[in-house]
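Hi everyone, sorry if this is the wrong subforum. Our group has a chain we'd like a structural model of before ordering constructs, and none of us has done structure prediction before. Sequence below.
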Amino acid sequence: MSDKLNPRRDLLILGGGLVGMTLALAAAKKGISSHVVDRADPAELTAEGFDGRASAISTASWNLFSNIGLAEALEPHGCPIESIAVTDGMKPGRIDFQPEPHEGTPTDTLGRMFANRTLRLALFEAAKDEPLIAWHAKANVVERHRGEHGVSATLEDGTVLEASLMCAAEGRGSPTREEAGFSMAHWDYSHRAIIVGLTHEKPHDGVAWEIFYPDGPFALLPLLDDEQGRHRSALVWTVDESDAEGVLKLSERAFKHEIEKRMHGVFGEITVEGPRSSYPLSFQHTAKIVHHRLALVGDAAHGMHPIAGQGLNLGLRDVGALVDVLAEGMRLGLEPGDAQLLAKYEKWRAMDSLMVMGATDTLTRLFGIPGKLASAVRRFGMAGVQRTPMLKNWFMDEARGMSGDLPELLKG
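Answer:
Right subforum, don't worry. Here is the predicted structure as tokens:
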């Protein structure tokens, strides 16, 4: 994967996380070459340990992973999401999203849960022997340039990488996006997500729980049992920013007690595994996702609340659309940085990303309204959805990522 001569490539991908590396692999499958630059040390990102950091991979995203050759490596490590239980504080009136079996086939799942470490390992392993990917790890970009005929990035050690198109995949704080001067809608939810791993007495049966409390959602995400046969889940607990420091400093016993209080015994006796991590929650969405020889993908373009687990999936849809557009354009003789291709990518992604982010923001605000009356109204609405198969199926298709105009790479 090293590239001593650093020849010009088609793409210069800044950010080698889950979205950036998937973009490089998807592009390579279409014969598109790339430089991938990331500040992180791969050894640290793939270190042993269970810290609860996990991602829900929708049906569409799984199709993408399958189409770029990752399914075989990932399949044994994914926990199927058989159903999703949505409840307002564990009161009556919950919704159960569970797909129906079709003509004797097993019940379709709503996606798969993977530990983030597992996803990274599979991506890095697939990329290391791919000649179309030149990976520059532990590298800092000190200068970016987008000219009339190409783009370049200068690294801290003086290396200059050249390409036709620059792709910003650095996440929410993307320096490439900031340097390019993109305008962005942004607001702070004044909440913090606390993430930790749990082992528990009772099996989760593939159920993902989304329990809404006035201070934020409390999500229990199913993972595969460990080597000792212990049942595992990832917890994403949203707390008010003013309470976050106190919660993070709780003793192990007190922290466990607070979790158990909110779980209402659904998994029986629990054990908190690994360290607690946290991050602030905010909404950010760029008015545009392309500029001269520059495309934004993933959280660099749109950062959202984790309430529906769609953040990574939205970024992977960006990947599928961008690669489809570039591959078709290059087949017609256009270069990756062509303005027509970038305009097509932006148009394709605009409505989908705005709808998903708008729905997520609305849910966050709706379930954040305190009081018994608000809770009663929410539960009445949820009971109505529970009794309406057409509505439930629509929500499940959205969760799978199978609605709208899908890129070829995201189709089965």
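For your construct planning: The chain has twelve helices and 19 strands. The domain at 9-185+284-410 is CATH 3.50.50.60 (FAD/NAD(P)-binding domain).
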